[in-house]
Amino acid sequence: MLQSCVLFLLHFTKHVSAADTEASKDIHSSFEGYFISVWHNRLYLYSAAALVFGIWFSLKIVWKKKSLSHQVDPWLYTAAKKTSQPVEIKDVVHVSGVKIFYGSQTGTAKGFAKELSEEVRGLDIPAEVIDMKDYDPDDRLADECTNKSVCVFLLATYTDGQPTENADWFCKWLEEASTDFRYGKTYLRGLRYAVFGLGNSVYVGHYNTASKNVDKWLWMLSGARILTRGEGDCNVVKSRLGSVQADFLAWKAKFLKRLQALASGEKKSCGGNCKTRGGSCKSKREEVQEQPEEEVKELPQHNSSEEEHLETSSDEELAASNEKERGSVVDVEDLGSIMSNIRKAKSWSKGQGQGQMVKLSKLSGVKDDKGGGERREMITPALREALTKQGYRLIGSHSGVKLCRWTKSMLRGRGGCYKHTFYGIESHRCMETTPSLACANKCVFCWRHHTNPVGTEWRWKMDPAEKILQDALEKHQNMIWQFRGVPGVKPERFEEGLAVKHCALSLVGEPIMYPEINTFLRLLHTQRISSFLVTNAQFPQEIRNLVPVTQLYVSVDASTKDSLKKIDRPLFRDFWPRFLDSLKALGEKRQRTVYRLTLVKAWNVEELQAYSELIALGQPDFIEVKGVTYCGESSASSLTMANVPWHQEVVAFVQQLADMLPQYEIACEHEHSNCLLVAHTKFKVEGEWWTWIDYDGFQELVRAQEESGGQQSFSALDYMAKTPSWALFGSSEQGFDPADTRFQRRHKTKDISGC
After folding, report:
1. Do 157 and 209 contact (CB within 8 A), yes or no?
2. Is the dihedral of CA 389, 391, 392, 394 positive or negative?
3. Distances in whole angstroms, Cα of residue 657 to Cα of each of 104, 241, 647, 678, 728
4. Which residue did the predictor score with more confidence, 559 or 738?
5. Backbone angles phi, psi at 624, to 5 degrees
6. Quick one: 159 exposed, middle or buried, by C-beta within 10 A (0-12, 13-18, 19+)?
7. pTM given for the model
8. End-to-end CA distance of the chain
9. How confident is the model at residue 63 (pLDDT cuts 50, 70, 90)?
C-alpha cells in the first residue's frame, strides 16, 4: 500500500511539471529533466512523505490496542478505571500497641507501668506491661522494629548506679549488643521507644544511670526515640516538680500526647527542625511563645518548664550521635568542632538546670533555698499517705511519732524492752519519735522498708523544736488514751503512761540531721524527759556539737569498709572516713555512749578482730549486740530469715568479742529481744554492775550545767544506778522483769515495730 502511494505521488508531480518542461525547450535529456523537476518540487515531496509516515504510525498504534483488547478480560478494565479514581485509605494502623517494660526494686516503677498502661488503653490502643526479667531481648526485641509497636522503658537505678535485679540481664544484653559488630549499628532500626528513669539525685555519681544507659544503647542501635528521656527524682529538694510521682505525671502527659500524634499518622512532632532525633525543637517553642497570653495561662503550671526539661538532649547522647554518624574514625580537622559542641551542650545543660529551678520555683510557689526563700517540705503527699498507713503520727513537715510495741506490752504487764533491762527505762512511759524522717543510709535491715526520704544535708523546710515536741507529746498521749479500758491494761501503768519520762530518738531517719536538735534536747530535759539519741555515724561534726544526752548511740553495723557499704548502703561517698571520725567524736563525749551492733548472719558475724579495733577507737561505755530483726520480705532488701542469728549464736559472738576486749565484760541479757550488753568495767563497782541510770540525778546535773553556762560538767559515772539481779547475764530470768508476766504468742503475726 505504501509503495502504490509513492508511485502515485511521483506520477502526479511528473504531470504537474510537464508544462514547465515543454516551455523551457532546453537541450537536456529527459533523464536530467526528470531530476530537475524533482528538485524544483522537493517541498511537495517532503510534505507528502511526512503525511504518509504520520498515517502509518497512527494505524500501527490502533492495531496494537486492538490486539491487546482480545487478550485481556473486560473486568480488568473496570478495575483499572476504579483504581484510577482517588480513593480514601481507611483502617491504616500506625501504632499496633504499646509495650511497657519496667525495672523495679521497690515496686514504684511497676506501679507507674500499670498506671501508664491504663491511660494508654483509654486511648483505644492496646497496652502490655512486661517485667524485664521475663523478656528475652535476643529473641524478641528485633521483632518490635517491624510490628509498629511503641516500647516504653521505666527503669529505676539501684545500688551503685546498677539496674534493678529484674532488669539486670536485659541491660547487660543491650550493652553488649550496642558494641558488638555482629549485631551492627542498625540492628534496632525501626524500633520506636521512650525511656523514663527513677532515681535519687542524692547519689550524685549514680543518678538515673540505668535509664541513661538504656536510652544511649537503644540509640546506638538505631532505635527511634519518640520522646526524650524523662527523669524522676525521689529527692524532694531537687525534684523539679516536688516528687518522683509528679515528675512521672508530667512526663506521662507528654508521652500520651506524642502517642496520639503517632497513632494519627504524624511522623514528626514538629516541622522537622529538630537538630537531633528526639532533640530540642525550636519550632515548637516558637509556637508556644506566639500563643496569646490567655491560652498560656490555661496550661498546667508545669508544662512550660517541664516540656523544656524533657526536650533536652544530654551531652552523652550528642557524643553517641557523633560517634554513630562518623563511625570509629574521626578526621583530625573535625575534632575542634566536636569538642566545641560537647562543651556547649554541657554549659547549656548546667545553665538550663539552674534556670529551670528558678522557673519551677515561681510556678510552685517554692523558692530556691540559696535565695533565702521558703524551702520544700520533706513529707510529700505520697510519703505522708504511706507513713500514715504504717501507723506513724506525722508532725509538721518532717517529724513523726509512733507507739512502740514494748510500750503496749508494758501497759499490759507483759514485760518491757531491752532498755528496761539494761538501763531501767519504764517502757510504758517512753515516747519513740524523731525530728527528722530523712536518713543518710538505706540499710538492708531497715524495718521501715525505705519509705522514709534520704539526704546528706538539711535542705527542707524546718519546723520549730517547740512545735515538734508539743505535737509529739500530744499525739503520743492520744495513742495512750486509746488503751483506756482495754482488757489487760493495768490502770496504774495507764496513768503513768500519760506522763512521758523517756524519749527514744530512734524511730526512723537521722535525728542529728535536724538543725535544731540541741534545742530539742534542751526542751526534753527542761520537762525532765530523758534522751536516748541514735545516729548512724555519718555526721561527726554534729556529734561533737551535741549538748549532753542521757545516752548517745552510734550504730556500728559493720566493721569493714566493704561490709558497711553492703549493709548500710550510705549516701556519702566518703562514708568510711565519716564513720571512723564519728567514732572518734563519740569517744570525746563525757556522758554515756553506746555502740549498737546489729548482727546479720553471713554478712558481718565473722569480723571479730575488726570490731575490736573499732571499739578501741571510740572507747564506748557500753556495746549493745543485737541479732537483726527480720521485718518481712521487701523488694528493697535481700535480707531473709536465714540472715537472722539464733540467740545462742549471738551469745557465742559476744563471748568471743568480750574475750578480745580486756576492759569490757558481758553485763546484761535480754533473751526476748535477742540482745546482750557488753559494759566497760568502770561500771562494775565492787563486783556489782551499775548499768542502770539515775534519771532524776541526770536531770539535776544537766540543770546545774545549764545554770553554770557550761562551766560545771559531769560524766557517765555521776548518774549511774545499780542493775537488778534479774537483768544480769546468766540469770534464770534472762532479762525478763519478774514483776511482769511473759506472754507467748502462738499462731499470730509478730509485731516487729519498736526501738
Report:
1. yes
2. positive
3. 40, 50, 15, 9, 18
4. 738
5. -95, 125
6. middle
7. 0.58
8. 120
9. confident
